[in-house]
Input
Amino acid sequence: MEQDFTTFYMDFTIADKFGIEAIKDTYNRAFKEWKNDYKYLTFLVLNLNHKIWEHYEKHNDEYARLYDKLWREADTYAMNSLKNSELQYYLNILD
Output
């Protein structure tokens, strides 16, 4: 598997400390900036998924639900937008 070359996990970890609105803002900025770059989009989705499980395991249901909502939005966008080798890359990394 390719190494994560983004700062998304760190960005969301910082946002976690500032609450729901900071998480949403971090997501909105990252998604807007990187949604058209299939590799960055892939790692955005991957990191959102990691954050779901991180907060689920900590019993922080509010954050887990928010990350799940954001993950579903980004994953749906990726599955509908990526084609051919870009979609294959996405699926291989997330498998």
Remarks:
- DSSP finds five helices and no strands in the chain.
- Helices lie at 8-16, 20-34, 38-57, 61-81, 84-94.
